Amino acid sequence: MYRDLKVYLDLKEILFDESSQRLKTLHKIKEIAEQHQTELFYDRKIVEEFSELTEGDEDYITGIRSCLDLLLMNCTPVQSSSFVFKVCFSSENTSLSYLPNQLIAAMRADGKNTLLSLTYQDIGKVLLASSHTEFQIVAFEVVSGLSRMLEWIISQGPKRVFNVSQKHGENGKSNWPNESPLLCSGEEAQELLNNAIADFNEKQRRLFNYDRNRNAFIEFFYEGDTPQQQWHGFHVTSQDVSRVPLSICKHFGFERKK
Hints:
Elements: E1 5-9, H1 11-15, H2 22-35, E2 39-42, H3 44-53, H4 58-71, E3 76-77, E4 83-88, E5 95-99, H5 102-105, E6 112-116, E7 125-129, E8 135-143, H6 146-155, E9 161-162, H7 186-194, E10 206-211, E11 216-222, E12 230-235, H8 246-251
Parallel strand pairs: 1-2, 1-6, 2-3, 6-8, 9-12
Antiparallel strand pairs: 4-5, 4-7, 7-8, 10-11, 11-12
Helix pairs in contact: 2-4, 2-6
């Protein structure tokens, strides 16, 4: 459903943020990426630079560094010998502008790439040069935070089409006996589906959202790889909220027992 998604983290902006939110921000980013089976990449040199800057700081050594190591466990450090250039097109006066960024240099031309950064603008495409005869065009998007990254992940999947199921009815009516009802209309369900999120590590082919108008989670089921790309769904009762992954509950600020 979501394949070959790659997010490149500009850790310098996160780690050198003086606020206490930096590790919390990184943790949220990693959680959402892993839930959608998205690969995370970072520049190890930035981490080393941060470590040198905080050398001798006991609070950092015993606290932040151990948390950082744990957060980056399953993230991949980039390795690249390529050079990145932005093409400044102007007919016969076209020129190349060098971009000193190892994250962009490590991107693959055949991947779905995004750079999570506050300083880079939406460049779109760059030229990667590996030697005087090896060049490739790499396309990527720039997102500025967690919500924009989530929007990008959702946009990379197939179009979501909601299908009103006879099994669950509509507007709290016509559902089969002993089956959870869809409490809203099909149109409202489509809007909730458009922004629904996943935890594919716990539940494959499922998406979830929180319907604030009805104070209930809504669960969507993927009906299969058909041209229609359809989903059906129902609202989760308070008695059955345990079927919603803890990560999803946490994302929407909902507390439940394990």
